[in-house]
Amino acid sequence: MESTLDMLMIPGSSKQRMSKEEQVTPHKISLIVLIHEYCTIRRPSTVHSVFSEDSDSDINLTEREKRNFMVMILQLLQSSDLTLKELFMKIRDKTKIELYTLFLKRLQEFIEDGVGALKDYFQNVTKEYFLSGKGVERSSVLGLFIRRITLAFEKLSFTQVTDMYRKFERYYEAGVGSYEESQDFGGSLTDSAMSLSGVRFSRGLSLDPFQLTNERKLGDEGRAVNSFRQAEYFILQQAFLLQHNQKEALSPSDLQDKIMDMLEMNPDIAEAHFLSFLNSLRVKEYCTALHNLFHFFDRKTIATFNKGQGHGKHQPAEEVHRRYAALNLASLHYRFGHKEEALAPLQEAIGMAQDANDNVCLQHALGWLQRLSEQGTASTENLLERAVTKSSELNLPNLTSIGIQAFARHNAFAAAKPAQVFEYLQKSDVLNCQHSQSGFMCTSFANKAALWQMYGKMECMSMLSQLILHLDTSEHSVFYNGESICVAMCNLARFHAQMGQYGLALDIINCAKKRFPKNQIQSSEIWMETEQQILFDRTILNRKFGVTELAVLNLKALNPLESQLREAILNKEKGEVTESLNQLHLLLDNCGADKGNNSVTADFKCRVLLELGELYRQTSNPTSGTSYILECMTLAKSHHLEYLAALGSIQLAHIQLQMQLPEQALSLLSQHMLAILSHGTVTDRARLLTCHTKCQVAIATRKPDEQKRQGLLSCINTLNTAIELYQSAEAFLHLKDTVYLQTRLYHELDLPSERNKCARQFRQLDVQYPSLSQMTVNAL
């Protein structure tokens, strides 16, 4: 996305462009009237004007009201032309009622007195009031605007002035409605507003724009008019918002309509086609995006050719767009998975950048070349190292930060030590802080959170996700709301769900839905996937398999590989052993066969091995499952995946317990107990405590009676904790087994009241969640 800004800010593109003449429109006339009335009520009462003999001379404006008015006027000057109804809605709540009514009265006088009033207004007010230094400084923003409009108005012929007045009449009538409409709709709101300021109109027209029907069409006069400067500002503003906060930008359909209107008024603006290209990327419209990118390339080529002829020589600065157009074409193919097609424009961009000695473009191309190369290889590592070094030498902090984060990610998947990975990421944080790169800062923290999650440190992941949401990322009064923010919110939602707090998790997901609506496809897919994963995890534990199947089906469109694994888990829980076994073996074969860009991460392969080992153990075939569990633990330790290695140890300890080796199982659990209890989910912690209790019971039964009783009593509290954890996770089948174990312990300890209480609870759970197969009996 960095090349996007380079495309929109081509060196020399805005400075060498021909200036466009200012156009007089009804909207701009209304703005001049609004400024005039504001200056009239805020100047000292000793100063009088022939145009304000009946206005209130003592109307005090607070500093806050003055500031709000100035900000509003600046926004109106920069935005496209509005209809009168839209202008009313803009100014009504941000100005005093006196200013609002004076503004309406002045517009009505133009309609009543005819074209002569409009000409007199420009001849007297704009010269004697605005440009005399009494109201607005000549060199100020407002002064320059008024001078441009006045000059453009003076250039109009009498026929053009008459046509302009007719447009103004239609503009006014469309905003305030006809006399008949004012009789049908309530005019009391306007009348009450006028009475507050003591202003009355001679005619009975209702000026309340909020009483009009939405179906009224304004025709050509209702269409937004964009000057060349307004179009340029709009393009840069929307491009910034699309990268910084898409929610603040116009919706895809509205933005496309705005671009079409803009091109109709200013067909020479090639950057509008590129903005349309960015808009198409939001909704993943490949054909439209490609079409708009080619249009941008064609328009810029024609403009470059014409300017080259006009200057009589070749202009290298105007050819920068060609290189970045090729880069964006390569990125477009990459976004839609066409990696082979992306290499052709990338090589073309590299060739043009080398001919022009454009090191910045070459660094962008080097980054994309690394993306398109086979991942996880020595050549990719070499490309990343060169990209980071060269970007640092050229003082390109954005590319350096991106390169460092990509290099750290590569090292993490290549089994580098976590300390080295995070130490390298720290360089990116320093760069981002030095250059105030809020977006890259959030991305760096999101990468760290993902790495902590992969290493099994869920608390660290939660902390970094909260840091992302607490960062001050405002830029031009717009807070960053990119993909990393959505990732952070989904991390927290997943974390709460793993702690058994499903209500809080769904609340966070609902918040993410509001911040990232579905038209932001790239970000919305993140919370969609997280929502389905939480739904799967919850329903697989409370045995609502109908909802679980729906979650798996929805997940297929978002993450096919994850969906296949969870479908196998679902079949295992339903007792369909053969189908689940075939699916898991197929996934394991794919993990070993896929290389390069299609390879899966080590943590995903460990999860497949864990499920295979658990499936064999639950089917009373622990010998076959041991090999898969040991392979999982070996792979997890080599990639520093501490949490997955601890989960493997729980499975292996349960197998040792089944093989009458409780001492060895207890020793293995003690080695990994800290990792599970510190960062594990409530289900994994409960499973650890249950297995640990079974080992202690097995050991206690071999001891004398007194030591046996003390050992069994010590297990009661542990089982109480496991029961609470299972209840919070809604894992009712595991809860039933734990209650059964506790019932047996109370019976062994000769505690009948406690035993009967647990037996009653077990009976209730067994009615709701019966054990229908050997799989559920052997579940851990």
Model regions low in confidence, pLDDT < 50 over at least 5 residues: 1-19, 45-57, 178-223, 309-315
> Which geometry do the CA atoms define?
elongated
Fraction of helical residues: over 70%
Number of strands: 0
Structural class: mainly alpha
Name the beta content range: under 5%
Radius of gyration: 35 Å
Major sheet: size, sense and barrel closure?
A: none
On the 0 to 100 scale, the average pLDDT is 81
Head-to-tail CA distance between termini: 47 Å
If helices are DSSP runs of H or I spanning 4 or more residues, what is the number of helices? 37
Tell me what you see in this structure.
It is built from 37 helices and no strands. The longest helix has 26 residues, at 286-311. It has helices at residues 2-8, 26-42, 63-78, 84-91, 97-113, 115-130, 141-154, 158-176, 179-184, 188-197, 228-244, 252-265, 271-282, 286-311, 320-335, 339-356, 359-372, 378-393, 397-413, 418-434, 438-455, 458-470, 483-498, 502-515, 521-541, 545-556, 560-573, 577-593, 602-618, 622-638, 642-658, 662-679, 682-700, 705-729, 732-748, 752-768, 774-777. Residues 1-19, 45-57, 178-223 and 309-315 have low confidence and may be disordered. It is mainly α and 780 residues long. Helix 2 packs across helix 5 (97-113), helix 15 packs antiparallel against helix 16 and helix 34 runs antiparallel to helix 35.
